[in-house]
Specification:
175 residues, mainly beta, Hypothetical Protein Pfu-838710-001, eight-stranded antiparallel beta barrel, 3 helices, 9 strands, 10% helix
Length: 175
């Protein structure tokens, strides 16, 4: 079972020394989710069945998830069958208090500038006791716009700029 929360961020944390992953992923199906992912030199097929959103004050997405290894050639074969856009992002794994790890994603291409962080929890009790650092922003776990499967269908970030939408943190990724 996967228990996770996603947050916008208020400010960029110090990423010095954090593990860095280059990720490309695409979706063969979004209901249920069937995803392929290249993460550095590893290739994975993921199946997620959505159990739903935890009905509590600390809303979280809860999924059943199965991951299977792929070879590079099978990944490349499936890559041609992806629906929508392939997502490219740089992920930083950031150590957090209480042995949690935040996965900060900086998106590239059509989603350039979008940044958010996700934290996975081993059990519901960990989720309920989690205190996000000050640089975390709003919990967007229930906002479908922050799901990668939804983002794979976006041509740009206009979905975040509609009237009444909360502002997202757009990172200045130019250095």
């Amino acid at each position: 079972m996967e228990i996770e929360q996603k947050y916008r961020i208020r400010s960029m944390p110090d990423l010095f020394g954090c593990e860095k992953l280059e990720i490309e992923q695409g979706y063969l199906c979004t209901d249920p989710v069937v995803r392929i992912r290249k993460c550095n030199d590893h290739y994975i097929l993921t199946y997620k069945s959505r159990d739903g959103v935890e009905p509590s004050a600390v809303a979280a997405q809860i999924n059943q998830e199965v991951e299977l290894p792929l070879t590079e050639s099978s990944y490349l074969h499936l890559r041609e069958k992806v629906d929508g856009n392939r997502i490219a992002k740089t992920r930083y794994r950031i150590p957090l208090p209480d042995d949690h790890v935040g996965e900060l994603d900086l998106f590239h291409g059509k989603l350039e500038g979008l940044v958010f962080i996700e934290v996975e929890f081993a059990q519901k009790a960990d989720l309920e006791s989690f205190l996000p650092p000050e640089w975390f922003g709003e919990n967007v776990s229930t906002d479908r716009r922050y799901s990668n499967s939804f983002l794979s269908k976006c041509e740009d970030l206009s979905v975040f700029r509609t009237e009444g939408s909360p502002k997202i943190h757009l990172a200045n990724t130019q250095s």
